[in-house]
Structures are given as C-alpha cells and as structure tokens.
Amino acid sequence: MTAPLSACRVLAAALALGALLLAAAARAEDPNALWRIVHDGCVPDQQQHASPAPCAEVSLDGGWAVLKDRRGATQFLLIPTARVTGIEDAAILAPEAPNYFAAAWTARGLVSERAGRVLPREALSLAINSPFGRSQDQLHIHIDCLRPELPAALRRLGSTIGPAWARLPGGLLGHPYRARRLDEAELEGVNPFRLLAAAPEVGAGGLRPWTLVVAGSAGGFILLADRADPATGDRAEGEELQDHSCALARQPPA
C-alpha cells in the first residue's frame, strides 16, 4: 500500500533533519569538550582555589561559567555547570532553571574588555544554535558583537517588530527569522527560552529545531528565532548573525 502523501512528507522531513544532525556531529572533534573544560577544570578550580581558570568567570550559586572561545577576538561562551545538552533540553524550561540568557547578558562586559572599548548595547548579542548548527553537546550561549550591518538593519525594521513573534520582513542572511521586541533594559525576570517556547509556531514540536538570538537595542532587546529547514539547508545557526572579529569595535562611536 502506498503511504499517504502527508506521511511521506513527514518521513522525508525527519530523514532530512537527521542528515543535518549527522552533519553537525561530523563537524565536532569532541562534542563534550566544553563540558569537560567546565566540569573538570573551571568548577574544581573555583571550588578549591577561588579561581575560575581556565574560564573567565564561574558562578557556583548561579550554575554557569563563562569561557573565552578559542575562535575570534571577542567571543565568549556562557556554559551551564550542570549537564544540559542544548536548546532542546527540557531542563532549560524547568521552573528552577537558571536564566542563562540573563547571566550571558551580564557577562557582555568581557566582550568590551577584549574589544578595548565600551561597546553600545546595540552592538552586542547572545546566540544559541540548534543541534543542527552546533558542534558541542553542552549548552553554550555565544556572547559577541553583531555583524556590522545588522544594528542599522534592525533599526530600520524597528517599526515592524512588535511584542509578539512575527516574521521579520525580508528575513536575515537569506533565512526567514521571526522577531519580537522586549522593552526591558535587562533580562532578569525575562527568560527568552520560555518566550520562544510559548510561541504558537513552536507548539508541541518544542525547541529542538530552533535557534535563538538576543540582540541589544536602544533601551531593550530584539529576539530573533529561526527554525531548521532541511529543504533549504538552513541549520538554524543564529551564530551567523555575529561577527567574531567585532568590526563594530573599530567603527567610530555614533
């Protein structure tokens, strides 16, 4: 018997998503490297010597560490000290879960230090990739500058970005990002993971195929989300919106 067309499409989509995940796994030399650095190095050093090395910061009470990434001049990673695989892990939505994005935004000063100047909030961003666009199986939020063309682009689109998730007109970098505005100056008490999980387009499928970016804006934030699409090869890799050379740091202040 021939399977119904809808069932065939579901199977094809599942196989394609599986192929994306296998490709991501193939890129990873050691998908547990970040976990080992934090669990076996940074946390014991903080506990025994009050030193976060090799991390830049460790909060034992907060449940996170910040590590300078080996790529880029200014990129840092916010990494849980507990075992949390990524955006797909149900633990990030638990009532007692740390607000990892809030902690990552607080750590943005490390990017400015590496850049050699205080960067405006519109230059800074936080990004977590989907499982299809990452090489590590320990949750990590990329803390770094936006690509140099994006702050102006997001300002131009500002009137189209409201307090509810909606398609961003024209998308970004060829991908159909969705966006919503946050008017809060900080992320304490506002968890971007939960805001995305509550979006109608996410639904029962959960966060597994999604990437999430938090971009600073004047007095608030713009949240950007994209869903992996095997038909177009979109791996939902929000890190693509960041510039690990931080060209914005070399531009004259506005």
Summarize the structure.
With about 250 residues, the chain is α+β, with helices and mostly antiparallel strands. The chain contains six helices and ten strands; from the N terminus they run ααβββααββαββαβββ.
| C-alpha-based Rg, rounded | 18 Å
Uncertain ranges = 1-27
What is the CATH C-level name? Alpha Beta
Sheet-strand content, in percent, reads 15-25%
Task: Note down, in words, how this protein is organized.
This protein has 254 residues and is α+β, with helices and mostly antiparallel strands. It has one domain: 2-Layer Sandwich (HIT family, subunit A). The chain is built from 6 helices and 10 strands; from the N terminus they run ααβββααββαββαβββ. Strands 1, 2, 3, 4, 5, 6, 7, 8, 9 and 10 form a 10-stranded antiparallel beta sheet that branches. The longest helix is centred in the N-terminal third of the chain and has 23 residues, at 5-27. The chain is globular. The termini are far apart. The model is unreliable at 1-27 (pLDDT under 50).
Q: Topology, please?
A:
Blueprint: H1 5-27, H2 33-49, E1 57-59, E2 64-68, E3 76-80, H3 100-106, H4 109-115, E4 124-128, E5 141-146, H5 150-156, E6 166-167, E7 178-182, H6 192-197, E8 210-217, E9 220-227, E10 242-243
Antiparallel strand pairs: 1-2, 2-3, 3-5, 4-5, 4-8, 5-10, 6-7, 7-9, 8-9
